[in-house]
Amino acid sequence: MSNTYQYILVHTDGPIAHIQLNRPKVLNALNRQMVSEILHALESFDQDNDIRVILLSGVGRAFAAGADIDEMAEVHSTDLELLNQFTDWDRIAWIKKPIIGVVHGFALGGAFELALCCDLLWAADDAEFGFPEVNLGIMPGAGGTQRLTKLVGKTKAMEWLFTGARITAKEASQFGIVNKLISKEVLFEEAIKFAHALAKQPPIAIRYIKEAVLKAIDLSLYEGMQYERKNFSLLFSTEDQKEGMKAFIEKREPDFKGR
Ligand code: CAA
Description:
2-enoyl-CoA Hydratase, Chain A, domain 1; globular; 3-stranded mixed β-sheet; alpha/beta; Lyase 2-enoyl-coa Hydratase, Chain  A, domain 2; 6-stranded mixed β-sheet; binds acetoacetyl-coenzyme A; 259 residues
C-alpha cells in the first residue's frame, strides 16, 4: 500500500503490516482525520491476503498523547453528537487480524483507548498510560471507561479515571494491561520478531480465536461458548486444520496457508 496518508506512515515487511502514528510535533495527538486514516489502513490490511499481523506504534518520543485537544476545545456537544466520530472506533474494534500495539513514551487518553483496542501490547519500560481527560473536565469517549474496567476491574479503573493518574509500564504489566515489558532499545526489534512468529500461526484459527475471546468480554459464558463451539467446528473445514494435524502425525513443522 503506498503512503498516501497525511498523519500516519504505513509499510509492510512480508506478512507484517506496520502503521505508525506520525504527528511527532504534537506527540501524535489523534485528530479525527488521523483516526480515520488508521481505520482505513487497518481495514485495507485486514482485507489483504498477504498480511497476517498488524503492528501499531508512534513516531517520535511517544505512542500518542491522546485526542487532539486543539480540535476539541471549542466544539459544541450537539455538533459532537451529530459528528458521531466514535463509529470509526467501533470499526477499529471489528478488525479481524491480530493487532500488536507497540508502545513507548506516553499512551494517554484516546491513545490509551487505541492501545486497549489492540489484541496484544508490547511496551517499553518508559511507557506511561493514563486517562487524563478528567483534568480537562471531560471523560474518555472511545471506550476507555469500558475497556479498562473490563480488563482491570472496577477498583483500579475508578481510581485511575477519577485522578487521571499516570500508570507506569511496570504497573501496567502487573495489572495485565501489557503483555511484554521490554527495554526501549530493543522494543521494536522484539515486537517485529514476535509478529513474524505469530504470522506463522494458522491465520483462520487466529481470526476465530480473536473473535471468540472478544465475545467473552461482551457475552455471558453460555453465549460465548456457542461462539467458541461454532468457530471450533468451522475450523475443521480449513486446509490448515488438515495440514496442522497431518504435520503433527508426520512429526514435521506445519505450513499454514490461511485456507
Ligand atoms: N492535543 C493537542 N496537542 C498536544 C496534545 C494533545 N492531546 N498533547 C501534547 N500536545 C502538544 C503540546 O501542546 C505541545 O505543542 P507545542 O510544542 O506547540 O506547545 C507538544 O505536543 C509537546 O507537548 P508538551 O510540550 O506538553 O510535552 P511535555 O513532555 O511537556 O508533556 C504531556 C507531555 C504530559 C503528554 C502533555 O503534552 C499533556 O499533558 N498532553 C495532553 C494529554 C491529555 O490530556 N490527553 C487526553 C486528551 S483528551 C482525549 O483523549 C479524549 C478521548 O478520550 C477521545
